[in-house]
Design a protein that fits this description.
Elements lengths: L4 H11 L6 H8 L6 H17 L3 E9 L1 E2 L22 E2 L2 H14 L3 E5 L6 H11 L9 E4 L5 H9 L4 E3 L14 H13 L3 E3 L2 E4 L5 H13 L4 E6 L16 H15 L5 E5 L3 H5 L4 E7 L17 H10 L3 E2 L13
Parallel strand pairs: 1-4, 1-11, 1-12, 4-5, 5-6, 6-7, 8-9, 9-10
Antiparallel strand pairs: 2-3
Helix pairs in contact: 1-3, 2-8, 3-9, 6-7
Length: 338
Amino acid sequence: MELDTNIKEIVDRALNGKEITVPEIKELFTVPAVSEESYFIQYASRKMSEVTLEGKAEVHAQVGINVGPCPKNCQFCSFAATNRVFKHFKVLTPEEIIKRCQRFEQDGANAIYLMATANFKFEEFINIAKQVKPALKPETVFIANVGDFDEAGALALKEAGFTGVYHAIRLGEGTVTDIDPKERLKTVRAAKKAGLLVGTCVEPVGPEHALEELVEKTRLAREMAPVFGGAARRISIPGTELAKKGMVSEAGMAHILAVVRLAMGYRVPGNCTHEPNGIGAMAGASLLWAENGSNPRDTDEKTETNRGYSVKKCREILSEAGWDILDGPSQIFKPQCR
């Protein structure tokens, strides 16, 4: 059996440094996940990821600092007030957050993220960050994962010691969330104007998403010129409407993240998948996350006892997939990568 000629030509153009077009991205997405063409796409994704990071994968670590019902009502999120998972608002103390971050440092995480729910008071987040940052090693890469903010907020994040932010225009944004996609894009622009590096992802992917939306969100992610792209699947929150729709398989996600990798091209250093899995790492995911504290895909406020992965486990997954793992501060979030 021979590879589809058109698929091979598209992949070859991507590997040769050419930006593939939106119709070509769409064509790659239509390839069955279990097929010779898909494995060819995944192999190309892996080679591109190896080139952009000189063969080194990374493990980043996120501390979720609070739980509670969030009025933004993202239906895929355990914090959504309508999902009735967390009924009371709770915030970790700065001392506990520092302890968790330092533990991640000791475990060898290449970057530390602070995550808060979208309704968390921005000023309080900045205040916590200003206490955490001095307690970390000077070289530790510090990343924010928060709700939307304006240009003044972006400057405040920069002044608090953050190198960058994670932000995405999610699948279903404005339909299954009470957040305007335009606000998400404004936040990305504000972050970049302040000199913050931006990581993003095509997420959360579920079987309910049409091909056209996958293509559009991939295009948007590429236009953000992030330091990493990738894809993450929607994890079912028990008892919710979206849970009834099931989940995309890890095999299906491996194909999707590989297409996103080729669409991003060599100018984007990192390629992520979430939650961590070996199939994704084989298919070109060079970035996995460890997590503790809260987690929007978990019903346990201590995700480290349930869905959250440790740094050690993430490193094992990457190693089993044949990756060398970076020791030291993240290279994905180095400005010279851009």
